[in-house]
TrEMBL record, chains A, B:
It comes from the Bacteria. Residues 21-302 form the Tryptophan synthase beta chain-like PALP domain. The keyword Cell membrane does not apply. This is Serine/threonine dehydratase. Belongs to the serine/threonine dehydratase family. It comes from Idiomarina fontislapidosi. Keywords: Lyase, Pyridoxal phosphate. Pfam families: PALP (PF00291). Its cofactor is pyridoxal 5'-phosphate. GO terms for biological process: D-serine biosynthetic process. Coiled coil: none annotated. GO terms for molecular function: ATP binding; L-serine ammonia-lyase activity; magnesium ion binding; pyridoxal phosphate binding; serine racemase activity; threonine racemase activity.
Amino acid sequence: MPKISLPRYDDIILAAERLQGFITHTPVLTNTEINEALGCEIFFKCENLQKSGAFKYRGASNALLALAEHERKAGVFTVSSGNHGAALGYAGARLGVSVTVAVPSNAPAIKRNNIEASGATIVTIEPGMEAREQFATQRAETGEQFIPPYDHPDIIAGQGTATLELLKQVDNLDAVITPLGGGGLLAGACLAAQDIKVFGAEPALANDGFESLQSGIRQPAKPPRSICDGLLTQLGALNFEILQRHLSGLFVVEDRDTKAALEVIWQRLKIIVEPSSAIALAALKQEQTKFAGKRVGIILSGGNIAAEPSQPLQV
Amino acid sequence: MPKISLPRYDDIILAAERLQGFITHTPVLTNTEINEALGCEIFFKCENLQKSGAFKYRGASNALLALAEHERKAGVFTVSSGNHGAALGYAGARLGVSVTVAVPSNAPAIKRNNIEASGATIVTIEPGMEAREQFATQRAETGEQFIPPYDHPDIIAGQGTATLELLKQVDNLDAVITPLGGGGLLAGACLAAQDIKVFGAEPALANDGFESLQSGIRQPAKPPRSICDGLLTQLGALNFEILQRHLSGLFVVEDRDTKAALEVIWQRLKIIVEPSSAIALAALKQEQTKFAGKRVGIILSGGNIAAEPSQPLQV
């Protein structure tokens, strides 16, 4: 594969222009009780309220909008167990681009349903990197473009617009924390934030990113075990390079702490986020002393999880 | 009781100025799939994301901010099974006003807990209007001000700021729909909306408002049975007068339709609302042909309901 050049700040500005009117300008929420409990000011960027239910719509849309007319006509495909597939499906439906998504057989039902609802064509494959790569290689022969979930300059630039928007909505942030899975969101945040510190949060059970940054060599994905089903993939190669250059720190978080953070967000902020979103708040709590008195942005990455009232509603 | 003059549009403007920086400027959400399904454009004003978890914080804060210094020092009390009590508690804590809330013994646990968390002092009373009135009469002897949940000019004006804000956030609305319980939110909407049509939504099992408007005589509350636990009170006297003059229509909604609307909001908008909020969307669906092609604002009144993932998170 030829060496792909890393995206830069300017690419995020360009992506933000392309996405104007296409994506939802998601709100930023704050909560006095959470701030008091953690001793800092937190600004939650609600990408769970983004179209398709996740920030992934930014990158997927940017990638499709960047295609030439003949490429759009040929259609695109991807491999995704969740939010990227749905995001690409919804963006494709809007632009009239045919989208095929290979979905691993162990994908959460709600995410598979969301991909189906987007209008994308689903192909079921075995779980794991091998089946993904095999599918991608075969499918590329059809002439369709492969739009990968995270390791692609247009995807990274698109995801970076979430942080760019946050910085326009909130003055004088000291830091931004995002979840880390494949690294598109976090790498995009690193590029968008410029002088502001950016931190990542990664599940302890899927800490290949942490080990990659420690060792300087990109590590394979771990067996998929964390409740953060969106963060189980291997850190992408481009993203790894960007994180090596720009990341201020990566926090490894236990699932039980992510679960507690999820409950706080649901109960206090009154919004539905998936565990992969809540990990960033769990990381902040874990590193509370580090962020004492600071103004911290948290990107809530997605909300694709089934929810119901704790008590049945009597009708 | 001396005749209290009805609040007017100017009172809402004044309330909005008072509340500047005190309340949350809540976001407005839209959803393409819901719009397509219902054949109109819906703008959801997210008062579930308001401080204290409900629009009630607007009226409670406005009422406390309107008090003279010596009145604030004397403290206030109210009777509330839910969101008004918590709202008054939180507003009181912020302004250093002592707040006592009489809570009926049948109040939902989450709402009672929310009142407790606000810092208010709780007194448990029997359910029903009689116990409420008895408590209010006795407590008034202490010199504390009674801040009623809805039938008060400052409360109505405060609640009206939700609609005022919505009209600034969204151009060219054709109509606004709000839930109807005691009538503070709906009466406030009527005053704020001026030339725009305002509709109410009321549970079929608690339709004293509908019967009052039909008969021209304010009817007593019905036995509390609907899943819309925030909408079980009697329509207030001031609110009744305002609705008689300004309301464009009132829709009576079955609980099963409210429950379905609740699920749509949770799943599609990714926000947690209580049944009393969802009734407005259920009413819109019921009256779909009436609103075809229109731009409709819906005030999502509150989000104080316990929620959990449908599938347990495996940690």
